[in-house]
Write a structure and sequence with these properties.
5 strands; 2 domains; three-stranded antiparallel sheet
């Protein structure tokens, strides 16, 4: 055996003995950094800290924006057979009734409406309930979405993480507003609302303006324990 090979053999023997002395049974007991359950970050996290970490830039021009840039409205991105709007209504309303195909929500109750804190009855065709994008599509367009793939824009427009059933007139008063220009009248919901916007912007790597980040800080400073919501759909919608 060459001197080099003799050295390697002795080193391996020493390592084995060291593991035995420390109570380890072998290298298989050491954590594998490639395993997702070892490397995954802890769930939750502070919404305020996440807001601090968002990229800050100026708002880009709205040139080229139209609703169709984010795909047809309320497509079935999760492939459960139902459109996104009906999925959100079924998930966020109480006392839901559906048609015979099991998808279309015919009636229900939004209690409370997060934006106003009131009780709203939903009836299909005479609805006072909208499905709002927490981060408006046009706001996203001006803060990074112009450069996305079509699939990513479809995913964003239909991601449950970015969608909330809310009073229609209040939602329409929001328009394209971000945190700096609009907050829900229901002050009890503002921390959750802003945390939702932060989560969506973090997930989709959208930037914020300085005024927007300052407004996020101001709201979340009043609820520093507010957790960052997570989940929703993948950030690339399947091809249709």
């Amino acid at each position: 055996m060459s001197p080099r090979n003799r050295f390697l053999a002795l080193a391996a023997l020493a390592l084995t003995g060291s593991l035995a002395l420390t109570g380890c049974e072998g290298l298989d007991d050491l954590p594998d950094p490639a395993r997702s359950d070892d490397a995954a970050p802890a769930p939750g996290g502070s919404a305020l800290e996440a807001a601090e970490g968002l990229t800050v830039k100026g708002r880009a021009p709205k040139t080229g924006y139209e609703r169709g840039e984010f795909g047809s409205a309320w497509i079935d991105t999760d492939r459960n057979g139902c459109g996104t709007r009906d999925d959100i209504l079924a998930d966020q309303l109480d006392d839901v009734s559906r048609d015979d195909d099991g998808c279309k929500v015919l009636s229900g109750v939004l209690d409370p409406d997060p934006y106003t804190g009131t009780r709203i009855t939903f009836e299909r065709g005479r609805s006072k309930v909208d499905i709002d994008h927490l981060v408006a599509l046009s706001d996203a367009w001006q803060k990074g979405a112009q450069k996305w793939s079509d699939g990513k824009r479809r995913a964003f427009a239909n991601d449950p993480l970015n969608l909330v059933a809310a009073d229609s007139s209040t939602n329409r008063s929001k328009g394209e507003g971000d945190t700096a220009t609009w907050l829900p009248p229901n002050k009890a919901y503002r921390c959750e609302y802003v945390a939702g916007q932060v989560s969506v912007k973090k997930k989709y790597e959208l930037w914020v303006t300085r005024a927007e980040q300052d407004a996020m800080r101001e709201v979340l400073a009043g609820c520093p324990e507010q957790k960052l919501p997570s989940g929703g759909n993948p950030t690339e919608a399947p091809t249709r």
